[in-house]
Amino acid sequence: MPLARRRYVTADVFTDQMFGGNPLAVVLDAEGLSTAEMQAIALEFNYSETTFVLPPRDPAHTAQVRIFTPRAELPFAGHPNVGTAFLLAQRREFLDAARTGQFVFEEAAGLVPLRLMHDGGAIIGAELEAPERLSCRARVTQEAAAASLSLPPQDVAMTTHAPQVVSVGLPFLVVAVASREALRRAKPDLAVYGEMLPLDGADAVYAYTHDRGDEPRGSESILHARMFSPLDGIVEDPATGSATAAAIALLATHGRDSPEERSWRVHQGVDMGRPSLLLGRTVKRNGKIDAVHIGGRCVAVLEGAFVAEPDKTARPL
Predict the structure, then answer these.
(1) Fewest C-beta in 10 Å: which of 2, 14, 60, 151?
(2) pLDDT digits (tens, 9 = 90+) for 135-176
(3) Can 49 be counted among the known catalytic residues?
(4) CATH class of 6-131+299-306
């Protein structure tokens, strides 16, 4: 049976404390699993994402990685890449790659380069580079965006950009919210989601705000964010690297006077009790976004294995 004795490990991603951040399951022995079996395993874990590690097609790369939500496969995602790199770096079979500090994952959206993060010689996390340049797609009205978040229209800010679908590998509807207090009140309206989404590939809403007390410090900006994806069975996600990458790329594009390289600190998951910190970098060349990076700390949590069938010879106690 293909499923028998598959090893898995889990981590909390974008946090330095267990039970914070966004949990991730990584199936290490994925070779031979069908897509349907991977989907069933992801549903069993029921995390926002589960990854499956396969041998790379090109031996110059670290691994092929497939990413599943409880309902569907994704071409790219942020916290699964960061967490998978962190966890693989702890495994003996990936020690050579870990020594270089550089991983490259083959994914449906393309190649995803990652750099391991260290503190005092210990591997503490990873930083990815998004596989695609920023693409800006459909816009929605202030009223529709506000309704999707159960907010009045005035709580959606329009100063920097209109609510818009953007992507650097996975599309999201990105909405600027006027205040931290409004962000705290936000909750998804399923009826509005069903009418408005999916739109240009996006079926989730990423809402963010600049807290008034969080002024940019030199070349660093601070955001607070929440991400709602009830159409994927994820009411709220504690930390969403792919959406954060798209959002900061959009903001860096609109910031004509911003430095060519800007750092970002993005707080997410606070209002749902799983505080997360995402560290971003945007790089501009000749006024255009050249690269977007998202990284953060991780904490290993669980390690185990699962089997396909119960032992039919076992007798009940």
Answers:
(1) 60
(2) 999 999 999 999 999 999 999 999 999 999 999 999 999 999
(3) yes
(4) alpha beta
